[in-house]
Each structure stands twice: as C-alpha cells, then as structure tokens.
Design brief:
Blueprint lengths: L9 E4 L15 H6 L1 H7 L3 E4 L3 E2 L11 E5 L6 H13 L3 E6 L9 H6 L26 E2 L9 E2 L28 H18 L5 E4 L13 H17 L4 E4 L4 H7 L4 E3 L8 H5 L1 H4 L13 H15 L4 E3 L16 H11 L7 E3 L57 H4 L6 H14 L10 E4 L6 E5 L2 E6 L5 E4 L5 E6 L2 E4 L2 E4 L3 E6 L1
Parallel strand pairs: 1-2, 1-12, 2-5, 5-8, 8-9, 9-10, 10-11
Antiparallel strand pairs: 3-4, 6-7, 13-14, 14-15, 15-20, 16-19, 17-20, 18-19
Helix pairs in contact: 7-10, 11-13
Length: 509
C-alpha cells in the first residue's frame, strides 16, 4: 500500500476546461503546470487528470485512439512528462485516467480487427460469428464492418468493447473464455500501457468503468482476477503507484480486485445519493435543510463496507465529478459548506472536483459537447478572474461557454472572502493534514440519537457535529472540549449540544 495515500487529498482536473495557456480556447497540459501552485495552495497534494490521450473525442477522450500518445490539443508526451516532474518537485502526485474496457473505433487495433483477414488482434474485440448474429441482450453495432460479424460496444457506438473473455460462455461460436490466450493478451496489453506511463513518471491511474472488463460476469470475480494480476504487477514493479476504481463496490474493488481506493458513488444503490443528492432523494437526503434524512440509513450501508476494507484500502468520497450535475445545482451555499465538512473529515481519500472550491454552478441547457449530453453543464471552463472568459482563455471562443452571470464565482472574488466556500474547503483540508485522526486511516464511530439528525462522528480525539437542518436542533452528547473549527455555531451544556441551523462544529476532546 503506497504510504502517501494516507495523507492524500486529490484535485480532479478536466484538462480541456481548466486553463488555456496558448489561447486556442481549450485547456492544456502547460496550463495545468502554470496552475500547480494554485492546486497546492488549496491543500491538494495529488491530481487526477481526465483522459489526455489521442482521441477523436466522441466521448470527451474516453474513446482512446492511442493510449501512448497525448492528444495534440493538450500538448505532447514531453509536456506530460514535464507535468509529472514539476508536480513531483512540489511534492504532488499525478494519476492518469485509464480506460481499459473499450477503445475508439479509430484505434489501430480495431482498424485491423474489423477487417476480413485474420490478424494478431482479431480477437482483441468481441465480434459475433455472423452479421446475422445479434443477440438482443448485448449492445451491438451491426453490419458496418468488412468482417462478417457484429461487435459489442460498452457505451457509445464508437466505443467497441475490448475482449477479456466471458465468465459464462453462452454463445461458444464467438464467445471466448477468460483463460483464452487472446483474452489474456488483452490483459497484458493493458499492463503494457500502464508500464509505459508509470515509467515516465505517472503515479498511478483512476480506472474508468473498472468492473466492466469480463462479460457475463455477474459477481465480477473474473474481472477482479484481472485486476488482482495488475496489482501484483504494480507491487513488484511500481510499489508506490496507486489505483482508484470507478467500481462503487468497495468490498469487491479493494478486497477482491486489489485496488487501493474505490469511489463511493451513486451506483449500485449505495449511500452517496442518500447523503447529497436532493435531485434523487428530495426531503430524505441527509444534507437537505428542509429534510427528513436518516443518517442511520446511510451508516447501515457504509459501515459494513468501511469495516471490511479499512485495512486493505480506502473508500473515496468526492465533492462531484465530470459525470454528475455539480452539487450547486440543488444545494445552497451553506449546505455545500456542510457537505465539504463531511467529505474532508471522513476516513478514506477525498477528491475535490475543479471549481467546486469556489461553488461553480452547473450550467443547464447547454448543447452536448463531445458526448457530454446532460453532463456538459458540469464540464465548463474554470473561473479564475473577472477578465475575459473569466480568465480561462484569451480566445473569443472557448471549449464550452463560461458562466455569464454577473455574480459568477471566481477564484479572484472567492479567495479572500471569509464567508466563501473556498475558505471552508481550504480550512478543512489544512485541518485534515494537521490532525492524524482526520487522515485516511483514522478510526470512525458514528453518533446519533433517535432522531438520526443532527448527527456526529468521532475520529480519535476529534468529534464532528452536524446539523444540516434549517432549524435549531439539540442532541445528546457525552463529549465536549476545545472547538477546533465551526460553520455556524453551537452551545454545549448539561450533556447536550444545541446547534444553530445548518451548522458544523469540530471539537478536540
């Protein structure tokens, strides 16, 4: 287990929207290098970059044309190596985004595989044995190749699925078992890509759709076996490298597959949405000032996963990401502050999405860009200053439109505002680095009474109290002590804590 993860706080950068250094309207690697000091000042000591590989950008880079080449619009391979080097000089780590389940249909592997003649990569993708063979349970592209067959896609039509085999072979004429040499060769090709970038200075990977490799793999054990092989390679050749899964099932991802981290996201019915997603849970969301949320409902889901995985890896909460509406779409400023207090004081390794530190808004109604569709409004340019394009670019046209509101939040107008989300985020990250009890490995004990909200949790000698409701509330407590940090206010007396509306207090006992 890489030791640096225990004190890691990640900043997620969507490269095309972060900072444009050459005035072409699109963010780039040199722009990220120019802003490394900003990221470090936030308290973030690690970065996750969304895909920077060569791509036709039908899905914003998640359709890879060449895994070993930086997309020209971002710069060069040398630029990326320079980013690794500059980050390391500042004590920061860089994770790349790995897309293992599919490629672009313009990738050279697929261009060979779709031809009629056989090649060494004919089984790198999954083709049926006839153009007339199109089982409805699979997502297939039909009748568009020279080869007599249809191919499986993972997501968009331009993303043919790579072939890691089938756990349950139901169509033996064209489905291969996982131990077939050609399926094993796909896994080795994946390791080769990882070695390429790790040897150049990358510190690991965030893995897109990590559970999607093997088909007909209901329990995901066959997919986990592939990742366990990857972990064995890393432990031997790159022991300080880290892997975070987009799996959203910590027990499977961490204990079975060997990932160091797994996102606790809004999939598989876990508790992320019960905490934060007013759009899905309405007045039953825990962080809803008018709510009827139930922390126990979340804790009953989260704690078993936490207890089973805490000695093997980390569960990662994030403020947001590129696939979800920004939290500002359905929460007010005070609630967002409390959400940040939760994320940055929980165990595990937290992730901060670019712009969330200043409360950037989700821009509704944008025309889909590069396969973004409803996600496009969360991918707009970072807002730096009050100058042209809010400081993102000098070009008249930008990758996506910036927030045109007169009160658009920017780093410039938030950084020195004592009431800003920026101040809360940076204060909390600083406290996380200061107190060992708040780091990734720290213990956790939830505290709540019969009302379930307000609630508290104890991490070593620190206790965090939350009242997300819009009304004053009182709860029983056996603890009191020195106030370390607060949002709003609270009073301790006679074994109770009386919390002001939408407040948070951290005490040291």
């Amino acid at each position: 287990m890489p030791k640096w993860l225990n004190d890691a706080v990640f900043y997620q950068i969507y490269p095309q929207s972060f900072y444009d250094s050459n005035g072409d309207g699109i963010g780039d690697i040199n722009g990220i290098i120019e802003k490394l000091d900003y990221v470090k000042e936030l308290g973030c000591n690690a970065i996750w970059l969304n895909p920077i590989y060569d791509s036709p950008f039908m899905d914003a880079g998640y359709d890879v044309r060449n895994y070993k080449l930086v997309a020209p619009r971002y710069g060069t391979n040398d630029d990326l190596v320079r980013l690794f080097d500059k980050a390391h000089e500042k004590g920061m780590k860089i994770l790349l985004d790995l897309v293992p389940g599919h490629t672009s249909d313009t990738h050279e592997w697929f261009q060979k595989a779709k031809k009629a003649e056989k090649s060494e990569v004919s089984n790198r993708y999954i083709f049926t044995d006839s153009v007339w063979e199109a089982p409805p349970q699979y997502r297939l592209m039909c009748g568009i190749c020279e080869r007599d067959g249809n191919y499986l896609v993972n997501y968009f039509s331009s993303q043919p699925a790579l072939n890691y085999g089938f756990d349950k072979v139901t169509h033996p004429d064209w489905q291969l078992p996982c131990d077939h040499p050609d399926c094993l060769a796909t896994a080795e090709a994946l390791k080769d890509i990882m070695r390429f970038w790790l040897s150049k200075g990358a510190d690991g990977f965030r893995v897109d759709m990590a559970d999607s490799l093997v088909k007909n793999d209901d329990e995901k054990y066959a997919t986990a076996k592939i990742w366990r092989g990857v972990r064995e390679m890393l432990d031997k050749e790159f022991p300080d490298a880290a892997l975070v899964a987009e799996w959203c099932h910590p027990q499977r991802a961490i204990n079975d597959a060997g990932f160091h981290m797994d996102f606790y996201l809004d999939h598989h019915g876990n508790g992320y949405s019960k905490l934060f997603r007013y759009d899905k849970w309405g007045d039953k969301a825990v962080f809803n000032p008018n709510g009827k949320g139930d922390l126990k409902s979340f804790a009953d889901e989260y704690l078993p996963q936490y207890k089973l995985t805490k000695n093997n890896g980390y569960i990662s909460f994030m403020t947001n990401n590129h696939d979800m509406p920004r939290i500002s779409a359905y929460h007010d400023k005070q609630t967002i502050k409390l959400i940040n207090a939760f994320i940055f004081t929980m165990p595990g390794v937290p992730f901060l999405y670019y712009g969330d530190e200043i409360g950037m808004r989700y821009q509704k109604g944008l025309v889909s860009k590069e396969g973004g569709f409803s996600r496009t409004g969360s991918r707009t340019p970072m807002q730096w200053t009050s100058s042209k394009n809010l400081g993102f670019s000098t070009n008249d046209e930008t990758y996506l439109p910036v927030d045109a509101s007169a009160d658009a939040p920017t780093v410039e107008n938030q950084k020195n505002d004592p009431d800003s989300i920026y101040r809360v985020v940076t204060d909390l990250i600083a406290l996380r680095h200061k107190y060992d009890d708040l780091k990734g490995n720290g213990e956790l004990e939830f505290l709540y009474d019969e009302n379930k909200i307000p609630f508290a949790y104890k991490r070593g000698n620190l206790v965090m109290y939350f009242n997300p409701l819009g009304t004053q509330y009182e709860m029983n407590t056996q603890y009191s002590g020195e106030t370390v940090y607060k949002i709003g206010d609270a009073e301790f007396a006679d074994g109770k804590i009386k919390m002001q509306p939408q407040s948070f207090v951290m005490i040291k006992i």
